[in-house]
Fold this sequence. Notes:
The structure holds 2 protein chains of 2 kinds. Chain A contains 7 helices and 11 strands. By secondary structure, chain A is α/β, with parallel strands linked by helices. In chain A, strand 5 (75-80) and strand 6 form a beta hairpin. In chain A, helix 5 runs parallel beside helix 6 (188-203). Chain B has helices at residues 2-15, 17-23, 25-55, 69-74, 82-91, 127-131, 143-147, 157-162, 206-212, 232-246, 262-305, 307-315, 320-355, 366-392, 396-401; strands at 59-64, 95-111, 114-123, 135-138, 152-155, 173-176, 179-187, 192-193, 196-197, 202-205, 221-226, 257-261. Chains A and B meet through helix 2 and helix 3 of A and helix 1, helix 12, helix 13 and helix 15 of B.
Amino acid sequence: MxxxxxxxxxxxxxxPVIRLxxxxxxxxxxxxxxxxxxxxxxxxxxxxxxAIMGPSGSGKSTLMNILGCLDIPxxxxxxxxxxxxxxxxxxxxxxxxxxxxxFVFQTFELLPRQTALRNVELPLTYGGGPNRRARAVExxxxxxxxxxxxxxxxxxxxxxxxxxxxxxxxxxxxALLLADEPTGNxxxxxxxxxxxxxxxxxxxxxxxxxxxxxxxxxxxxxRVVRIRDGRVESDLSSxxxxxxx
Amino acid sequence: xxxxxxxxxxxxxxxxxxxxxxxxxxxxxxVASTITVVGVxxxxxxxxxxxxxxLGTNAMWVWPERPGGEAGKxxxxxxxxxxxFEAIATGCEAVRRVSPLIRRPTAAIRYQGEELNVPLxxxxxxxxxxxxxxxxxxxxxxVADIENAHHVCILGRxxxxxxxxxxxxxxxxxxxxxxxxxVIGLLLEKGSFLGNSQDNLVLIPYTMALKLYPASIRKIAxxxxxxxxxxxxxxRAQITNLxxxxxxxxxxxxxxxxVRTQDEILETxxxxxxxxxVVLSGIVGISLLVGGIGIxxxxxxxxxxxxxxxxxxxxxxxxxxDIMLQFLTEAVSLxxxxxxxxxxxxxxxxxxxxxxPQMVDVVVPTWAVILGFGISATTGVVFGLVPAxxxxxxxxxxxxxxx
Lengths: 245, 403
């Protein structure tokens, strides 16, 4: 499974949204130690749209989990939005996930019995503060689904579901939007619409990282980071080509 | 947070109606039996208290009885006679009133062609204040009635009704065991206890009863009233000492009579309700265990089914304690629904029990309802802990990948 993580920054260019220094991750599988990441250095600035690519087993998913604060590295330094998050406790990590990161998954992961609005409100129930409904409505408006607020996931198309998921990811106004193969379950046309939406969000200033194995998706991103064998294989920016179309 | 947890929990329960219902059956049974048994015991307790009040004020009973065992067999004749009665009447300071009580389980009474068998008691005029059982129409026995063993009687209301007579029977003549008696009064209606009417009774002077039933002369029982509630033990001791002296019992010999007070009757009843309470606790304990395990099981299934949801919630910022709380809320909601159904069922059973004509008024006290909710909530927490902890400790990465 591959993951793409977009990162958005607000106005000022510094500090970077993501700074990884010498990130390693080791798993113990019985007597064998698997080194999934072997010293990854990566800096992603505000308002970048970055694709992370790599074959399976490359460490791409591990990198995404660490970027998303779902996992902590064995060694190395990770600053998210200027804050060191490499050594945080479980509940501090949960807080970072709540405020700093918005996830978009290949399979949407919407709660099936709840309306679009309730799905978008979900992150706000975990320390979200006031005006939840208004903020959720606003977020749905950003993805163009203000007319589908009371629909349940099974009453919506795949593209609409992914839009709801994106609205949910945006509702806390996170520094980083992290998308894991966001078009993997969609047909080409619908996938294009979603990528279009990412481009639009990027133009509005959102930092986005998309983990993907589809070259088409990567081609829409200014910057493509390739991972192989737990290291950054290449990090190419096409500065002056268009971001998304 | 709590509101949305409860809302979520109820939605979950509602979306698995049948499963939820089956799961909470154990709790429903536990709570329903608590409510029903507590209600019935409370009803009986109130009823017995009322009955004891009706038996008389600070009343006690004395009757001859051969004690059990070897010592009892070695005693001679077991007697309680009129001289014992007179000795108690004059010699016991703590005893305010005393009346002989010569009971016949059945006596044939006949009036205008109707004949029936009713319980009969030979008593003195003191009987009415001791038993709180006054004469409503007519008059009580006079001293002359007792001393001269007049052929007079006082009827309970039910006897009057069964004879097909009205209050006009006062002053008329009835046949009791083929002897003519003049009805001089009617007792105030007392109602029934455990289905036995207390108004199905004929009273005659005890002196008359001794003539009618000579066999009773050496076997009379007594009913007495202590001067006050505090004086009941003293009255009992005085009667015991007096009778032992009169019957020339040595220190090693047991009493050849019995003295019973109202408190002892109450104790007998209390030990009965204790047994009922112990049985209840057993039923409640077992059904709570079964119900609790059911809840744990269904919650574990729910956690497994919703692994991806848990992963997602963690990804969007839920801490372990948030997930823990969510599933605990669900378990407690489930068990509280069971508690609610149990309380409703308990009330239903109480209402059903009350329909029986001889049943006491069943009263479900508020504390039993609170107890019902309390035990169901506690069960939910206790048996919800393991599944909730399992959910809370899930690794979000694995949970999101769970198929």
